[in-house]
Amino acid sequence: MIYVFWTCRDKVEAKKIVHELLAQRLIACASLFPEVESIYRWEGKIEQNQEVKVVLKTLLQHFDAVQRTIQMHCSYEVPEILQVDIVQGNPRYLSWVAQETAL
Questions:
Q1: pTM for this structure?
Q2: H helices of the chain, where?
Q3: Is residue 70 within 8 Å of 28, Cβ to Cβ?
Q4: Which CATH number fits domain 2-100: 3.30.70.120, 3.40.1190.20, 3.40.50.2300, 3.40.50.720?
Q5: How confident is the model at residue 103, as a pLDDT?
Q6: Which of 77, 82, 26 lies closest to 54 in space, CA to CA?
Q7: Which residues pair with 3 in a beta bridge?
Q8: pLDDT reported for residue 24
Q9: CA distances from 53 to 2, 74, 94 (A)
Q10: Residues with Cβ within 8 Å of residue 50, at least 6 apart in sequence
Q11: Order of strands across the sheet that contains 29-42
Q12: pLDDT tens digits in sequence order for the chain, 103 residues long
C-alpha cells in the first residue's frame, strides 16, 4: 500500500478528481485537508495561497495511473504528486485498500 500526497487549487477540483479516481478503482479512499496555506517560490516570485492537501490510499501498481489522472484533470501546471510507501499498518485496513482497488 502507498499514500499519494497531492496538493490542488480548491475543494471542488479535489472532489472532482477524487471521484474520478474512485470510479476507476484506482484509490480506496481520499482524505482532504481543505485549509492548507502554502508559501513557495514560483517563476521567481514568492507566492502564498490557500490550497487543498489530499492524501490518497492505494496500491503501488496504481501510482502511474493515479498520477496521469490527476495531471489530466488538475489546473496546476506542475502539481505536487508524491508517493509515500506504507511499511506497516492495520492488516484489516491494508486488506480493505487492496480489495477496493482490485481491477
A1: 0.95
A2: 11-23, 63-73, 91-100
A3: no
A4: 3.30.70.120
A5: 80
A6: 82
A7: 57, 84
A8: 98
A9: 16, 13, 22
A10: 35, 36, 37, 38
A11: 29-42, 45-58, 2-8, 81-85
A12: 999 999 999 999 999 999 999 999 999 999 999 999 999 999 999 999 999 999 999 999 999 999 999 999 999 999 999 999 999 999 999 999 999 999 8
Q: By the 8 A CB rule, do 16 and 74 touch?
A: no
What does the block give as the cell for 96?
480493505
Unique residue bearing C-alpha cell 506504507: 86
Residue 31 grid cell: 482524505
How many Å apart are CA 98 and CA 102, to the nearest integer? 6
